[in-house]
Amino acid sequence: MGNQYKQLEPAEVFSLLSDPTRISIFKTLLLEKEPCVSRISEMTGVSLSAVSHQLKRLELLGIISGCRYGQEICYCLNRDNRLTGQLIKLIKMIK
Fold first, then answer.
1. Which H or E run includes 2?
2. Which residues contact 60 (CB under 8 A, 6 or more apart)?
3. How confident is the model over 7-60, as pLDDT tens digits?
């Protein structure tokens, strides 16, 4: 099975890591199995619209995936993406 995810340039990876909101969302997804947008907003203290915007960016990069349950969308880390695994290791190292 080939790599189906976009190959990111180094600048894109550093941009991804430079946003505190994205890091906070990523950490929340490490702690919670499949939180919905409202739960992520509650846990991070970030507005629903800001969380939704950052989730969409992470999803487009293949870092996370979302599932719709009625009117809510819940998210989880996409552990099939090699970059996600590397980010998990990095976040755990710098805790």
1. none
2. none
3. 667 787 788 778 999 999 999 999 998 999 999 999 999 999 999 999 999 998
| Spatial separation of the C-alpha atoms in residues 38 and 48, rounded to whole Å | 6
Please answer whether residues 54 and 43 qualify as being in contact, where contact means their C-beta atoms are separated by less than 8 angstroms.
Answer: no
Helix and strand tally (H, E) in the chain?
Answer: 5, 2
Tokens at residue 12, please?
Answer: 């894109």
User: Which fold does the domain 10-93 belong to in CATH?
Assistant: Arc Repressor Mutant, subunit A (1.10.10)
Q: Distance from first CA to last CA of the chain, Å, rounded? A: 33
The ranges assigned to domains in the chain are 10-93
| CA distances for 47 relative to 12, 53, 58, 61, 83, angstroms | 24, 10, 17, 22, 26
Q: What is the pTM of this model?
A: 0.83
